[in-house]
Design a protein that fits this description.
The structure is a single chain. By secondary structure, the protein is α+β, with helices and mostly antiparallel strands. It has one domain. 41% of the residues lie in helices and 23% in strands. The chain has three helices and three strands, in the order H-H-H-E-E-E. Strands 1-2-3 form a three-stranded antiparallel beta sheet. Helix 1 runs antiparallel to helix 2. It is elongated.
Length: 142
């Protein structure tokens, strides 16, 4: 059995290349988090707005325009602008309203590399407790 002596020559620490690789990994991770996390945060706000709308006792008695204006005003209050506000689809069904907010965000990541994230949010007036997972096929345009 061999025994190894530990001396100063074997314990030099990290090389310059190791430091550069470590900094690159840290920088890449921070870039990912700082560019992608705000999009997921905005979608969590969209889901919260849908939940609050579903908890409203008069939700199924509202008109389509009332639902859209309520959503847009809630989006403005929460500083959600852009893509989610343009993709609100509302359909009247026999058991209540069906609201879909399906959209995708394209984030310029690095050079000509983009990250595309797709979100599907749905509020079913018949089952508001099941908000915000998409369970019913796409809502057709009216």
């Amino acid at each position: 059995m061999r025994t190894y002596k530990l001396n100063a020559k074997n314990q030099r620490g990290m090389s310059a290349i190791g430091v550069v690789v470590g900094l690159f990994i840290i920088g890449f991770t921070l870039t990912c988090v700082l560019k992608i996390a705000p999009v997921y945060y905005d979608n969590s706000l969209v889901r919260d707005v849908l939940k609050v709308l579903g908890e409203n006792a008069q939700f199924n008695d509202m008109s389509k325009d009332d639902i859209v204006s309520k959503l847009i005003s809630s989006f403005d209050i929460n500083s959600i602008r852009g893509t989610p506000t343009k993709h609100i689809k509302v359909l009247r069904r026999d058991d209540g309203w069906l609201v879909n907010i399906d959209y995708e965000e394209r984030i310029p990541f690095w050079g000509n590399l983009d990250v595309v994230i797709t979100f599907e949010n749905q509020l079913n007036g018949a089952k508001p407790d099941d908000c915000c997972e998409k369970k019913i096929a796409d809502v057709p345009e009216e």
